[in-house]
Write a structure and sequence with these properties.
With 351 residues, the chain is an alpha/beta fold. The chain contains eleven helices and 15 strands. GO terms for molecular function: nucleotide binding; oxidoreductase activity.
């Protein structure tokens, strides 16, 4: 059975997702919703030619004109909650670009909406989907107990636009990829964080483009992220450079294809199967076909977003931030938002 998607958002990332849908067997694009319908129609033509794809200005309009099986949300983060909630209550599962929302409270609302409707909401943490990352995780398992995991991330991109105006561009827009990968590699959840952020004198960003965060995980392991978005020269991979120290030795990953272990030597891991957003789409489709919960299900993804918000709060306050306490605060904040009654009842029941 071919799964028919309605995509919301037709910007540059939306175009990338259209190309991914076009290249994936067993799925098709049934419709696109975007406030700029001319841009959406042009994007569809550039990928699908004259294929019969409905284009409209709103999700509701496009859903009414299609027999869709799922929604792909590629809007800006500020629109994620509205789109996801609408789709879920329309009875459709949703694959949503990261981050789930600009705030943890809004993500909690989305998790409650998924529970109330019984529909899947999966967040696309696309940088989980690398064959080399999976190989690195296997090497970590050979090390016994991992006590320290580190990421060094150093890039000097000149994006222009909104990123260069953000208060915390590195932590908010990029670090979630590394934080989420750390959860995947360690197999446990974060407990607390201390974080310092700053903006080097030569930075072209308005906000803090450099940061260092130390997370305590549930099994006692520490994860340390050190990064800069104004570090030109000798740049790391977009995935950063990784090192793990365990009871049985050390393992590194260069963020590309080279995985090295003191226990097993070095190996170059070629790309395998679906990677990045193709990998997210593949896991989403497999989940719909089998019923298995994907790694990016909203209830599981909350901790990755919580790591970002906790790091930002620690950087701003200079104090250690407890993750579970932050989640409790987010739950209370969620109840203060304008909500559908079904979501409010679910959140109150979880208090």
């Amino acid at each position: 059975m071919t799964l028919r998607f309605v995509q919301v958002g037709a910007g540059s990332m939306g175009l990338a997702w259209m190309r991914t849908l076009a290249a994936t067997e067993g799925v098709e694009l049934a419709g696109v919703a975007d406030l700029d319908t001319e841009r959406a129609a042009a994007a569809v033509r550039s990928v699908f030619g004259d294929a019969d794809v409905v284009v409209g200005a709103s999700l509701g309009e496009v859903l009414a004109a299609t027999a869709a099986d799922a929604v792909l949300n590629v809007t800006v983060p500020a629109a994620h909650t509205e789109v996801n909630v609408e789709a879920l209550f329309a009875g459709l599962p949703v694959l949503c670009e990261k981050p789930a929302a600009p705030t943890l409270a809004e993500a909690v609302v989305q998790a409650a909406a998924a529970e109330v409707t019984g529909r899947l909401l999966m967040i696309s943490q696309s940088r989980r989907y690398y064959a080399a990352l999976a190989a690195y995780r296997s090497r970590l398992a050979e090390l016994g107990t991992v006590g320290l995991l580190t990421t060094g991330f150093y890039r000097g991109p000149r994006f222009g636009g909104f990123r260069e105006e953000m208060e915390q561009p590195l932590l908010v827009d990029m670090a979630i990829h590394a934080f989420d990968a750390a959860r995947y590699l360690l197999g446990t959840e974060p407990v607390s964080v201390t974080c310092e952020s700053w903006n080097p004198a030569w930075s072209w960003f308005k906000g803090d483009a450099a940061a260092m965060a130390t997370f305590l995980f549930g099994d006692g392991a520490r994860y340390v992220f050190t990064g800069s978005w104004c570090a030109e020269g000798l740049e790391t991979s977009w995935n950063g450079e990784w090192r793990a120290s365990g009871s049985g030795g050390t393992a590194t990953w260069d963020g590309e294809d080279r995985v090295t272990s003191s226990a097993g030597g070095a190996v170059d891991v070629p790309p395998g199967g679906a990677e990045q957003i193709s990998g997210a789409l593949a896991e989403f489709v497999a989940s719909l076909r089998t019923g298995a919960e994907p790694s990016g299900a909203i209830s599981r993804n909350l901790y990755s977003l919580a790591m970002v918000e906790a790091a930002v709060r620690s950087a701003e306050s200079g104090e250690r931030v407890e993750i579970d306490a932050l989640l409790e605060t987010a739950h209370a904040d969620a109840l203060a938002l304008p909500l559908r009654e079904e979501i409010r009842v679910r959140l109150q029941g979880a208090s």
